[in-house]
Amino acid sequence: MNELIQYPGLLDDDFDEEPCASIEDERFDQVYPSKVQELSWRHWTPVAVAVEAAKLLVTRPRTRVLDVGCGPGKFCLVAAELKDARFTGIEQRSDLVAIARQAALKHRLTNIEIIHGNVTDFAFAAYDAFYLFNPFEENMFKRKKIDSSVPLSKALFKK
Ligand SMILES: C[S@@+](CC[C@H](N)C(=O)[O-])C[C@H]1O[C@@H](n2cnc3c(N)ncnc32)[C@H](O)[C@@H]1O
């Protein structure tokens, strides 16, 4: 972390990135509204990564996994299809919470719970395994933001 703070230029997104998504991601993301689909290549876990992460995190039945900053729930949805485990996502943006819950209903997944809240006020003790997909990254960049609905700052990243 200190290294990153020492070289802030490396964290600035002055360069342009090309959107890039796999066919399986494009297909999966159709469960989401178009605005959420457009954010996927940059902000949501790719399906292939979710599959590997689920294998690594769930080492015994009924493992309780927490996705810290779950967005529209893509990791939880993919992992819950594959594993006999309980997936909880916590997310600060209420619209993404609603979208994640809707997608879980559509996929008829009952081993998912999506909580609306801030991870800084959350107790982690009830979980066996934790998944993070750069949840605090958007505090560090000028342009790589999901939206402007929540406060973002470098101070929050350091916290
Ligand atoms: C890069 S996205 C990853 C989403 C999801 N984990 C995935 O892999 O598809 C990070 C998410 O973390 C959420 N987030 C960031 N800080 C948070 C906080 N303090 N409390 C709750 N959610 C937070 C953001 O709103 C965003 O939806």
Structure write-up:
Helix 4 packs across helix 5 (74-82). The protein has a four-stranded parallel β-sheet with strand order 3-2-1-4, covered by helices on one side. The chain has helices at residues 2-6, 23-28, 34-43, 47-57, 74-82, 94-106, 154-158; strands spanning 63-68, 85-91, 112-116, 129-131. Helix content is 37%, strand content 13%. It has seven helices and four strands; from the N terminus they run H-H-H-H-E-H-E-H-E-E-H. Helix 6 (94-106) links the parallel strand 2 and strand 3 (112-116). It is globular, with a radius of gyration of 16 Å. By secondary structure, the chain is an alpha/beta fold. It has one domain: Rossmann fold (3-Layer(aba) Sandwich), CATH 3.40.50. The longest helix has 13 residues, at 94-106.
What's the layout of helices and strands?
Blueprint: H1 2-6, H2 23-28, H3 34-43, H4 47-57, E1 63-68, H5 74-82, E2 85-91, H6 94-106, E3 112-116, E4 129-131, H7 154-158
Parallel strand pairs: 1-2, 1-4, 2-3
This protein binds S-adenosylmethionine.
S-adenosylmethionine is lined by residues 43-45, 67, 69-71, 74-75, 90-93, 96, 118-120, 133-136, 146.
